[in-house]
Amino acid sequence: MAGFLTDWRQRATGKALAVVRPSTTEEVASIVKLCHKFSVPVVPQGGNTSLVLGSIPDNSGKAIVLSLARLNKIRSVDALNNTMTVEAGCILKNVQDAAADADRLFPLHLASESSCTIGGNLSANAGGEAVLRYGNTRELCLGLEVVTAQGDIWSSLRGLRKDNSSYDLRDLFIGAEGTLGIITAAVLKLFPRPKATLTALAALNTPHDALLLLARTLSHCNGALTGFELMSNYSLQLVHKHFPQLHFPLPLEHPQYALLELSDSESDQHATALLEKTLGEAIEAGEVIDATVATSIAQSKGIWQLRENISAAQAHEGKNIKHDISIMPSRIADFIATTDALLQQHFPGCRMVTFGHLGDGNLHYNVSAPEGISADEFIGRQAEVNRVVYDSVYRFQGSIAAEHGVGAMKRDEIRAYQPAVEIRLMQTIKQALDPDNLMNPGKVV
Ligand code: FAD
Ligand code: ZN
Predict the structure, then answer these.
(1) Of 91, 125, 137, 234, which one has the greatest count of Cβ atoms within 10 A?
(2) Mean pLDDT within 349-368
């Protein structure tokens, strides 16, 4: 059972009575009925890539892990309706490939896409690298099939874009992290495949300049801008140190870098012209210091590799204190400046690994130990660091759980920041749908 009991970052290992691996919705329902009868807690698990200890059991040894991995059929693709119906255990990459086979795009894009499952993506309402254009997983789903906490099957797998015939039950289960029921299948939205995808890297002085570039690119390229990622110099220094084989198309001497991705419905030439014009103007306006537009798929991939290896580079460097936060883009530069200064006051010399999805206001705002202090010693101060960061997020009216969810890791933390009414409403919903608290207990509420 070992692989099912330890989380992705190997920070915690739980215990379970058993790992159960059903391959049909009916089997899931039978298992949940039995668990309901004998009061056995159920921890649903997809790819087990949760970064908030959401998909592993606690230490009591009373729960079962219910792996959806064998529930992995693409049930149908309806190209005319721009939808596909897939089972919860389908790996995200396989969903993307099945859409491409029908000449369509399923736009959810995460660095964990070769391991995570669509059921996990829906349950965490995952974000990722194309939220700016296509929204979170919630926005990509039209219908669900769910096994309730009592073991009933609720099927609403209709590919309708308008349906006001009930409360929005679908949106209740999306983002619930398995605490209200088990998602077994979903109808997903598909989009036209872009004719060209182009990536660029820009060097900048400040996050504020990145915001000006974002606004400029949105007004020139509007719907074509699918990704806009920020990477601080120190984030990329770590990538350079631990992945020296990766090529940096710009000198690694500027304070900030922005990665832009354009998905164009016309042609490569059209996309290139748009991006070059936008970046040229931004350089003239002093927002951008230097920029490069990829001229091949290999170059585009190379730029993305810099971004996607930041997490791995941090892991090689040693543990640091991670925050997955969101702030309105209009206030994010101010947030970074203010919070960086506060952290320097409290933890002089701490090093900031700040990167993420600036286009939608979601930053991975990670704090590494000052030089000369061991990572383990610094981790001992995690609670103090969290307090400085989360209090600041609160003052900027942001969220301390932007895209990775709450899980077991932030369950107590969110109570300090969400209005009491909100927590009470959540508890009321949980009590109504899962009165015996058997669905992923200890997570979220
Ligand atoms: P799991 O980790 O197995 O489960 C996640 C949660 O959903 C748990 O609470 C679990 O109990 C519940 N669950 C799983 N399946 C079901 C189901 N069928 N029914 C009900 N509940 C269920 N997240 C982002 O949002 N954006 C990113 O860019 C991103 N990048 C990542 C990069 C890496 C390298 C890694 C390791 C993780 C990343 N994540 C990211 C976090 C994670 O990949 C996503 O949250 C993903 O959506 C989880 O999918 P999973 O199948 O692994 O779910
Ligand atoms: Zn992310």
Answers:
(1) 137
(2) 96
